[in-house]
Every structure is written in structure tokens, then in C-alpha cells.
Specification:
Blueprint: E1 2-5, H1 15-31, E2 34-37, H2 49-61, H3 73-80, H4 86-91, H5 94-98, E3 103-106, H6 110-113, E4 138-141, E5 148-151, E6 154-157, H7 158-161, E7 166-168, H8 176-187, E8 191-195, H9 199-212, H10 215-218, E9 221-225
Parallel strand pairs: 1-2, 8-9
Antiparallel strand pairs: 3-4, 4-7, 5-6
Helix pairs in contact: 8-9
This protein binds zinc ion.
Zinc ion binds near residues 106, 107, 123 and 125.
Length: about 250
Amino acid sequence: MLARLAPTPSGYLHEGNLANFHLTREVAREAGAALALRIDDADASRYRREYVDNIFVVLTEQGFDWTIGPRDTEDFESNWSQRNRTAEYFARLVDLSHAGIPSYACTCSRTDMSGVPRGGCPGGCRDRGTPLAAGSSALRVQVPAGTDVTVGDREVRLDEALGDFVVWRRDGLPAYQWVSLLEDERLGTTHIVRGEDLIASSAAQAYLARALGIAHVADATYVHHPLVLDAQGRKLSKSTRASSHDREGARA
Ligand SMILES: [Zn+2]
């Protein structure tokens, strides 16, 4: 059994990240699960080395110990960075069609997306059959209407919560849902602790995990915790300047 701390080095850690880490450690302890550190740097466009340094400094300060994962920034960049696995993530996309999961290239731009109330392609790409072209289209998984996904003891209507979600981005990088699933597969994750705002993401990953036969993720123990809010009641995130540990750090 394994739980993981999964910060994203796109900003300094904030109190919300720390609350997530402490709860994750608690969940691991109670379950007798190992604790891993997984640094989600697949989104190379936002990567900064100092954010990785910050993760190690803060985790050490807070007395965290993990048995799997990088020990320091140098170890991380040499041996664990997800940015070195882009080709591997891309190669795994073929598993979707092997598993009978329909996907399609979406050529809609960000401007097309504005005004669309939830995720999903706003422009009818589902029926167009355009092949994926890195740099000009994203790859979306088709989520049939009425798709209910079990996430721990909860049920999520995935087509309503997220719609046809992206697994490969327009800019040629893997999307969060895809990386997170493949990394949890690699680690053998069985306990997943996330903020409540990520319940739809958990459902998307559990949905793919079920279809791809990654049972320990599909049937993982899921804990979704309330978000840590600032004094104005806003979620601590990259758009909100947070106090001591500064900006956004984890999506888990
Ligand atoms: Zn589209």
C-alpha cells in the first residue's frame, strides 16, 4: 500500500499544500501504507528549479519522511523528472484504443472554450475524425452520457462533472489526468488524498484506470478534503498570493 505527496513545482508551496501533505501522511500511517514523494513537473512550461528546492526545504522543515521518490533537487532532475518521460506518456496513448476507449483530436482554441460552462469540446470535434497533430490539437477522451464513476464511496457523473477531458495537450505535453494516472500506476498508489475541487479529476482517472486494468487506482482509497481558504474565503492557488510558503504547489 502506498500514498503519495504530489506537489507541482509551478510555484512555492502554500498552507493548502501543507494541509494536504499532513493529511496524506496521516492517511498513510493509519493504513500502514508507505509514503512516496511524486513531484509533478510534466508541465515543463511552468517549471522552475527554485520551486523544487522549496519542496525539499519545506518537507524537511516539516519533518516529512518518504521511502520512495527523489531525495533532493539534483536526484529529482536526474532520475525522477516527468519531463524526461514525455515520449513514454505519448506512447501509452495507444492503450486507450486498445482498451476500447474512444478519443478524438480537438482543434478548438482557448477562445472557443470561453463561455463553455464545463470541460469538453465546444466545437463538434468528436464527430470530425481529425487525427491528433501535436501543436495544433488536443486529444480528448470521449465520455458517454450517463457515465457514473465510483470514486471511493462516492459516485460522480463524469460527463456532467468534466465532459470529454483532455489527456494530451495542444502544446504537445501530456495533460494532468494522463500523467497522474500513469505515475500512480508506476508507483503502485493505493491511497489518494486530494482537495475537494479535484473530485472530478479523481473520477476521470479512476474511469481510465478501470478501463486500462489499473485496479489499484480504480479501487484506491480516496480522501477529498475541504480546501484551505484565505481570509477572504478564496481558495489558495496560483492566482491567489498566499502567505508563508507563497504560491501554488500541488494538485496531487
Ligand atoms: Zn474541439
